[in-house]
Amino acid sequence: MTSPPRLEVQNLTRSFDGRSVVEDVSFSVSAGQVACLLGPSGCGKSTTLRIIAGVDIQDSGSIFVDGRLVCDTVFRVPPERRAIGLMFQDFALFPHLPVSENVAFGLKGNFQSNRGRVCELLERVHMTEHLDSYPHELSGGEQQRVALARALAPQPRVLLMDEPFSGLDERLRDGIRDETLSLLKEEGTAVLLVTHEPDEAMRMADQILLMREGRIMQQGAPYNLYNAPVDRQAAAFFSDINVLTGRVKGALTATPFGDFLTPGVPDGTEVEIVIRPQHLKIDFDRGGQGPAPTPENGSAALARVSRARYLGRESLIEFTTDEGGIALNATVPGVFLPPAGTPMWLMLRRDRVFVFPRR
After folding, report:
1. Are 288 and 337 in contact (CB under 8 A)?
2. Boundaries of each ABC transporter domain copy (predicted)?
3. Which pLDDT value is given to residue 10?
4. What residue ranges do the domains of the chain occupy?
């Protein structure tokens, strides 16, 4: 018999002053899985988290932990009895308690009876030497490790994390995220992480729940959301994009790169053709000596450099196409800084392009 999801949310809604903030949100998270609620500020992520934690009440919908109802619009288990842990953006450590007592705070019994669990977790987050330190004596990264140990100490079935890494120095963030992910996997906890950073979601999540205006617009594995976005906005959330627009005529849309097939789209429909900068390839124009280079399964357009900038790991080259004067950006690994006005061929593979009806 298949076990129920560790966390299951069904048709959750919440409104404030007549404005819908969370609208028909449904998803599930299995044991040992990390799910990321990803979206811009104000899209309903934190409200969803607060309802699951029990510090806000939904207008409709149900929440289950291990198949057992914890709340709907009639029945409600108190927050402290839901076996759900919380980890906040500001860590929320108690300044008057040493590290050891912060970690032991949510455990039943006295400190001595819980010393083994406390020491085990502090060792796993590499904080044993700070057992008797106070929060103000720790760096941001060290406070984050203590907050994680405290959240995991009662062995919650589900851990909710609200932007937990946003206060950390960018140089420390990747390492601490990786350490956190490793520990969460070892504990077998189901994790729901709220973030507005797509890189963080891609790095940590087994599944991403992409939210917009209170709704989950798309959910699935990071690979699927990146490579099969549901619309232009979803594609743009994960990377910079170039957009060509055109109208369908006879199942074709004309662009500087030639005609694109748009089968099933009615004539006259305006469509958006989305290309990521890293999927535009570049070749020098040879002054008419030989045909335009055309990659396999692709096509090319002549353009001129508007500006080129080195960004550290890659170079960003801004172009304007000769046909239509369309602005396009391309990225190239390493240093590549052609002068403004340089004519070049831009090539793309059509299997790396997304076509959406314009909204």
Report:
1. no
2. 7-238
3. 97
4. 7-231, 239-357
CA distance 115 to 120: 8
DSSP for residue 2: P
In this model, does residue 297 exceed pLDDT 60? no
Average pLDDT for 5-25: 95
Reply yes or no on domain 239-357 having CATH 3.30.870.10: no
Give the DSSP letter string of 154-199. T--SEEEEESTTTTS-HHHHHHHHHHHHHHHHHHT-EEEEEES-HH
Q: Identify the residue with better confidence: 274 or 296.
A: 274
Superfamily covering domain 7-231: P-loop containing nucleotide triphosphate hydrolases (3.40.50.300)
Q: H or E segment at 269?
A: none
pLDDT in tens, 331-358: 999 999 999 999 999 998 888 899 998 8
- Which residue has tokens 């992409």? 210
pLDDT tens digit sequence for 16-25: 988 999 999 9
CA neighbor of 28 nearest in space, from 1, 62, 57, 79: 62
